[in-house]
Specification:
The structure is a homodimer of 340-residue chains. Chain A has 340 residues and is α/β, with parallel strands linked by helices. The first copy, chain A, has helices at 9-16, 20-27, 36-49, 55-62, 78-93, 107-119, 134-142, 166-179, 197-212, 227-239, 252-265, 298-313, and strands at residues 67-72, 97-102, 125-127, 147-150, 160-164, 185-189, 222-224, 246-249, 274-278, 292-295, 322-325, 328-330. In chain A, the strands form two sheets. Chain A has a six-stranded parallel beta sheet with strand order 2-1-3-4-5-11, with helices on both faces. The radius of gyration of chain A is 27 Å and the shape is elongated. At the A-B interface, helix 4, helix 5, strand 2, helix 6 and helix 11 of A face helix 4, helix 5, strand 2, helix 6 and helix 11 of B. Chain A binds a DNA duplex (16 and 16 nucleotides) through residues 6, 8-10, 18-22, 24-25, 27-28, 32-35, 38, 53-63.
Chain lengths: 340, 340
DNA sequence: CTGTTAGCGCATTCAA
DNA sequence: TTGAATGCGCTAACAG
């Protein structure tokens, strides 16, 4: 066995009796002007010494780390996980690694992460922006650091952004409810904040679709509430004289909260209430009844974001744009047909 | 605005009219022998120039990157995601970043990732081993590269390993079934492979617990089958003359598959069959009936793994050991009381 | 208290 | 076709 000492490129050069630069060429597969036996000798020396290159040194020289940063609110959220997986798959093909950081929606944490990753010289960022950090993004733009946003639009920034067509998602839900004869439609979303594009758009899309379908927009049916007080709010709504017959859950967490409420309150699906959830959930199929869901094209979104970032990194990018991907409705049994 | 050129430490030094090394000391907070106004001047120069340090160069010199690698089969699996999150939280406190790679259980991919991350000089690895790469791990051991395993035990390797007490998990399930009067207990697990510690131990723990509780071990009730043919296999079992009254799902995926089968076959929970699932699932509460589950202490596992790795990195580690964490049973409504 | 010097491991001119 | 020299940006002795 070789000693514990780190083998460098000059050790290999010495061993093969040639110069460092030739070895370097070999490593970078520039075989063009290299003698066949030189090549052979280098190859042998490398395995004999158990040499493995130090990419750090290489990156320092080349100013490229083949590493990107992904900044996300919380890796535990299903949508984020899927998007990240898609990004990693795309990166894998380009031999790029990803460093992912959880901000928990904390702008300061986000900023700290971005700065540290910049210090580590990552080649670019894909971020689910926490909002409120516009100046940081702005500076990155000026420094021409490759950057792609996912899921949330920062209106004043010219940055590639990819997300689902959220308005279309609510529209799909409304259309499906309407098709089954529902007219009293409700929606429940977590607390709205200005930069939370998906929630905002899903709500506005819901209202628009109501109008398009000549359905009444009833303010009492529009719930936006923190998850921990959502059940209470639902309780009020279903205690009303004229409760809705159908409700859209704005995301997976909302859906689970709603289901818990219905279970506790003995409100039966789909007889007492029809339901559609935005976001895929693993139990949609096996629930009683199967839950009609609208899936986000998470993999497409992740893939596209990666591609856009690669374009920026390789300097082949076009003007920044917002890319929207279509949602898809999976009809199951949670919407009752009213035959009205 | 400053030009697009990269500001380095010598620019700062020049600007502040002192030497690079003093600036370097400032950056590393070695203020001890530094004049107050020197400090002040450096500080001003830094913000004036908009300097941000290049950690790559620093890492090259210090032989430490403050980055670790996490090798996992698939980030989409709930358990992995939670463990990773816990690791990242622990890393965050030490200002360490994580690069995570998905192997999809492919040993070659795993090896490639580990080699590339070594080339990037990561300070250590936390891996969910895919098995079959014993020689790679062995080499890492010899090179004294900090390494911690999660979830799977490689018996011939002296490496810190942290996982749930899997046998105890099955035991908890058996005890709960027994408490409710069940005697005909089945288990379903995905295909067994030699290095898949959790599945193996959960099965062996199940059998042991059966004996401890003086319950019969019936081979027909022990299903180990790929997910895509599991339903078929269940069909056979429930078509038997004397089917089980209770069944343990070895993990979350198995549980979902089972629930789908029961739904399709109109086998009612918990009247026709009682069920417990190992692994937390987001719908355990809201399902009808609520599913009794046994949760893996994913956060504890991740945290411990990170701590062990830090110890190795800081050279404060003790002998490699296997650490097991207790599972926890959450009783809900999916186990019927038989009063036999 | 601060500056000088010498690398870390590699890639890249430019000569030979 | 190969080798010598230079520097990426930073840290770490060691002087002064």
């Amino acid at each position: 066995m070789t000693t514990t000492k780190k083998i460098t490129i000059s050790d290999v050069a010495k061993h093969a009796n040639i110069s460092k630069s030739t070895v370097s060429q070999y490593l970078n597969e520039r075989y063009e002007y290299m003698g066949a036996q030189t090549k052979q000798r280098i190859h042998e020396s490398i395995i004999e010494l158990g040499y493995s290159p130090n990419y750090l040194a290489r990156s320092l020289k080349q100013k490229k780390t083949f590493t990107i940063g992904i900044i996300v609110a919380n890796i535990l959220h299903g949508f984020s996980t899927k998007v990240i997986r898609a990004i990693e798959d795309a990166c894998n093909e380009e031999n790029i690694h990803t460093i992912v950081c959880n901000t928990d929606e904390d702008p300061e944490k986000e900023q700290k992460y971005m700065e540290m990753l910049q210090a580590k010289q990552v080649d670019g960022f894909i971020v689910f922006p926490a909002g409120e950090n516009a100046k940081v993004y702005q500076r990155m733009l000026e420094q021409k650091i490759p950057l792609v946003f996912i899921d949330r639009i920062m209106p004043d920034l010219k940055i590639d952004t990819v997300l689902m067509d959220n308005e279309r998602a609510s529209e799909l839900a409304v259309e499906n409810f309407a098709k089954h004869g529902h007219e009293k439609l409700a929606i429940a979303t977590p607390e709205l904040k200005p930069y939370m594009t998906p929630r905002l758009e899903r709500l506005s899309g819901f209202k628009k679709a109501l109008q398009t379908n000549n359905l009444p927009v009833k303010e009492d049916y529009l719930i936006s509430e923190n998850l921990d007080s959502l059940q209470e709010r639902l309780q009020h709504m279903f205690a009303m004289e004229d409760p809705p017959t159908a409700i859209l859950a704005n995301n997976d967490l909302t859906l689970v909260e709603m289901l818990e409420f219905f279970k506790k309150s003995d409100i039966r699906l789909p007889d007492d209430i029809s339901i559609i959830g935005i976001d895929d959930v693993p139990f949609a199929n096996v629930y009683h009844p199967g839950i009609t869901t609208i899936e986000q094209p998470a993999f497409k979104i992740g893939k596209k974001a990666a591609e856009l970032l690669f374009d920026q990194i390789n300097d082949t990018a076009s003007e920044p744009e917002v890319y929207r991907f279509a949602p898809k409705l999976f009809e199951r049994e949670s919407v009752k047909t009213l035959y009205e």
